[in-house]
């Protein structure tokens, strides 16, 4: 499986990877050495916490390396009159009589609470390529779907402000 990422996604991942390897890891190694000297490791909470932090950092490094290595670089451009990545889109949901503004982003930068919707989500897949005035149905699962309509599109670009998804 290859993740579709923008050049900015990969740049942000590489920056985090460099930080974790060159700045964070040496400090974590020193903390493990320091806390190991406290004595009996079976009852040494500080040592266990330091090892956990070190292992979490190593796990994130492996994740970032894997994502960068397997990434397929995609272009974030779209036609002027259709929804593309990083465009701000005003959506009307008749069922709730509610209007929302969302931005479609790549999977590694989504945050639905902030209106950053993954292009791989049911909503993201449904909205990409649509135009103002288009109505569509979002199929969330086999038993739930809802209708929505595009009210406006404000063209955007990846300015790097959407942070990488943390786990």
Question: How does this structure look, described?
Answer:
The protein has 167 residues and is an alpha/beta fold. The chain is 37% helix and 23% strand. It has 3 helices and 7 strands, in the order E-H-H-E-E-E-E-H-E-E.
Question: Layout of helices and strands, plus pairs?
Answer:
Layout: E1 4-5, H1 7-36, H2 45-70, E2 72-73, E3 88-93, E4 98-105, E5 116-118, H3 122-127, E6 135-141, E7 144-154
Parallel strand pairs: 1-2, 4-5
Antiparallel strand pairs: 3-4, 3-7, 6-7
Helix pairs in contact: 1-2
Regions with pLDDT < 50 over 5+ consecutive residues?
none
Order of strands side by side in the largest beta sheet? 5-4-3-7-6
Structural class: alpha/beta
Strand content: 15-25%
The sequence of SSEs as H and E is: EHHEEEEHEE
Cα-based radius of gyration, to the nearest Å: 21 Å
The N- and C-terminal alpha carbons lie at a distance of 19 Å
The biggest sheet amounts to: 5 strands, mixed
Helical proportion, percent range:
25-40%
**Counted beta strands:** 7
Give me the number of helical elements: 3
Shape: elongated
Mean pLDDT: 91
């Amino acid at each position: 499986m290859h993740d579709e990422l923008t050049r900015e996604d990969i740049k942000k991942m590489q920056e985090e990877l460099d930080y974790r390897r060159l700045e964070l890891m040496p400090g974590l190694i020193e903390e493990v050495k320091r806390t190991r000297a406290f004595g009996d490791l079976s009852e040494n909470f500080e040592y266990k916490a330091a090892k956990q932090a070190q292992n979490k950092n190593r796990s994130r490094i492996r994740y970032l390396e894997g994502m960068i290595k397997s990434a397929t670089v995609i272009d974030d451009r779209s036609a002027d009159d259709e929804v593309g990545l990083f465009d701000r889109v005003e959506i009307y949901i008749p069922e709730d009589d509610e209007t929302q503004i969302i931005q479609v982003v790549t999977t590694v930068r989504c945050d639905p609470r902030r209106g950053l919707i993954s292009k791989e989500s049911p909503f993201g897949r449904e909205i990409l390529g649509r135009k103002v005035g288009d109505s569509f149905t979002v199929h969330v699962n086999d038993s739930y779907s809802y209708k929505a309509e595009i009210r406006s599109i404000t063209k955007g670009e990846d300015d790097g402000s959407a942070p990488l998804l943390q786990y």
